[in-house]
Amino acid sequence: MEQDFRRITIVSVTGLQSVADGALRAIVKSYGEMPGAKAMLLSPAKPDATPEWVRHVPIQPFGYMEYSLFILYVLNHFIETEFALIVQDDGWVLSGKNWRSEFLDYDIIGAPVHLARVIGPSGDMYHTGFQWEQFVGQPNTRVDVVYNGGFTLRSKKLLAAPRRLGLPVLIPPVSNIVGPVWKMQWNADVVLEDVHLCTVMRSELEQAGIRFAPLELARDFAVEQVGGKIHENLDFGGLFGQHSKYRRLISVDPHVVRYTVDRDRAAGIHGEDRILRLFESRGIGVEWPSGDGAG
């Protein structure tokens, strides 16, 4: 049965014009899998190849910190549909045939990542590397898993909530100053908008009626990193989308992904071989960094 995607806007936001072409490719690929959806790109300038059905909104150039603020407090202003699917050059729809109507029962759903906040008898701590899996289901323990923001389905209610509720962004001190050209760095993931939504702001959002998708459904929605128990029996062929800083969409027709790490590094990433097999089964081409050959 053909799905109806008219309630959704596929949107990508970038303050870096160098990324705009890749963001546009993610929109085009995702739109091809979601007939009837709206499409929107927010970037400093409109890429030359922008189709007429993609609405372009010009924005000022900005970096990642301002990107997080834009997503949390401003994106809602431009979304007219009930939901927005945020895509990026490293996050897009794999197969519209794997869409499930239950995704729209929640205000936010994305790929469960390696990071989660665990609140329980032992205290309040962030756990990385999927170490949070051991705490799921334990008595008197709350596990707030971060849902990846780069490929995320969000309701307009969720998009409006942080500003409407007056929820602040808590920025820790800068960890490093590197250069030249000089720039600031943070070692703490808490500065990222998806971490803020899913951990720092989560209790207040839930009190305001925001519904976070259950972990089991989020696992079927998309994949970023591959964990242990959570992905042990997952049918990767049934995934709706994917996101990873290691995989960037460089061509829509044909469908080609370029890795930002070489083959040896990719082979050392837990579960990445399953992603590569998925790409192969779907006829998705894989390119490696210059000098490493093509897959």
- Total discrete domains: 2
Strand content: 25-35%
Fold-level CATH name of the largest domain: Spore Coat Polysaccharide Biosynthesis Protein SpsA, Chain A
Question: What CATH architecture of the largest domain do you see?
Answer: Alpha-Beta Complex
Task: Name the strands of the widest sheet in spatial order.
Answer: 3-2-1-4-8-6-7
Q: Can you walk me through this structure?
A:
- By secondary structure, this protein is of the alpha/beta class.
- It has 2 domains: 8-245, Spore Coat Polysaccharide Biosynthesis Protein SpsA, Chain A (Alpha-Beta Complex); 246-295, no CATH class.
- Helix content is 25%, strand content 27%.
- The protein contains 8 helices and 15 strands.
- The strands form 4 sheets. The chain has a 7-stranded mixed sheet with strand order 3-2-1-4-8-6-7.
- The longest helix has 17 residues, at 17-33.
- It is globular and about 55 Å long.
- The chain starts with 7 loop residues before the first strand and ends in an 8-residue tail after the last strand.
- The model has no long low-confidence stretch (mean pLDDT 94).
